[in-house]
Amino acid sequence: MTPEHIQTLLESRFKNVVQVQDRFEVSVGAMRLIVMAHSDTDRLRIMVPVAAVDHADASTFQRLLEANFITTLDARYAIYSGILWAVVLTPLAIITEHVFEIAVTEVLQLAGNTGSSYCAWPSGTSARFAQLH
Predict the structure, then answer these.
(1) Please, what are the domains in the chain?
(2) Strand partners for 91
(3) What is the pLDDT of residue 57?
(4) Residue 130 three-state SS
């Protein structure tokens, strides 16, 4: 898939896609979806900034890491530059339209569910693997 194809997919799903340098940005409610597609490094990043990380809270970090293992599906929590992100990182060359759409949905769901279920599926649904014990 190419960055141009990514732009076309975003524009077919969202009305307010803006290209800013090497990325596409979309306002989705109160969230800012950022998509970076780089052919030269074969990387695709789909991400939403969730919150500033302004203090060290071991129980919060433990909950985020547990979510990464159990409930985030292909999306993940990450911290970069003092910001907590919901993100999917994947090779650009292997992504399909279907997988791209799922990845965007998972990142938006994960960002929206931070602080409650910490999961990448819609609120009110569950998965059998949500609890491992």
Answers:
(1) 3-130 (3.30.1460.10)
(2) 43
(3) 82
(4) helix
CA 60 to chain centroid: 19
DSSP string computed for 74-103: T-EEEEETTEEEEEEEEESTT--HHHHHHH
User: What is this structure's pTM?
Assistant: 0.91
Quickly count: other Cβ atoms within 10 Å of residue 71's Cβ: 20
Dihedral of the alpha carbons of 7, 11, 13, 16, in degrees to the nearest 10: 120
Of the candidates 91, 84, 86, 82, the residue with the CA atom closest to the CA atom of residue 107: 86
- What is the SS3 assignment for 106? helix
Q: From the centroid of its chain, how far is CA 81?
A: 17
Q: What is the pLDDT of residues 60-86, one digit of tens each?
A: 889 999 999 999 999 999 999 999 999
